[in-house]
Amino acid sequence: MIDYLTDIKPLEDVGLDDANIAFALSVRTATPILCEATKVALEGSGAIAEDPVTQTRSGPLIDHYGTLSGAEAVLLAWFISHVMIRGVEITANTYPRSVEVASVISGLPAGLLDVADEIIELGGGRPDAGTTEADVVAARGQYEAEQAEEQRQQSVQAVQAEIENTWINPAMSDGVSTAAQVRAAIKAGL
């Protein structure tokens, strides 16, 4: 279940439209993905092998990287370096990293998709997979309706406080006003 203030508003604030918000929510993981566990998954699946002496890497993921250029190559290079060398976690549970991870995965060859799924599961899976624009609009509408109801209740409470301060409290303390007099004074004053 997506929440407007927690999930949608921060993405609106960075300028995303509803379609891109839905996508970002749909591809995010439940929690950050730990790099150490990701490294184990990549090495365990054979996607990456690292020579312990030369520290050179090989394997299908490295071969795939060699076929890329431009932004795709830069993004996969960051991912490999972050996981294998310097990172602690991949914040695939937040924007923009969630979208970047989805971009890396969408470009992978079929032989690497199982390990990609395993890595996503390391982050708790994608709890909001399938989020649509309609879900975003509905969450926003629910929030706006809740805000309107809260404002309505506050308005009524303000009237209640005014009535109590103007007519009821003085009548309680004067020791002579009757309920009928207070009722008449309130009706006349409203």
Topology of helices and strands:
Layout: H1 4-13, H2 18-27, E1 33-34, H3 35-45, E2 49-50, E3 57-58, H4 60-67, H5 70-86, E4 89-90, H6 97-106, H7 113-122, H8 133-174, H9 179-189
Antiparallel strand pairs: 1-4, 2-3
Please characterize this protein's 3D structure.
There is one protein chain. This protein is mostly helical. The protein has a domain at 29-122. The protein contains 9 helices and 4 strands, in the order ααβαββααβαααα. The protein has helices spanning 4-13, 18-27, 35-45, 60-67, 70-86, 97-106, 113-122, 133-174, 179-189; strands spanning 33-34, 49-50, 57-58, 89-90. Strand 2 and strand 3 form a beta hairpin. Helix 2 (18-27) crosses helix 8 (133-174) and helix 3 (35-45) runs antiparallel to helix 7.
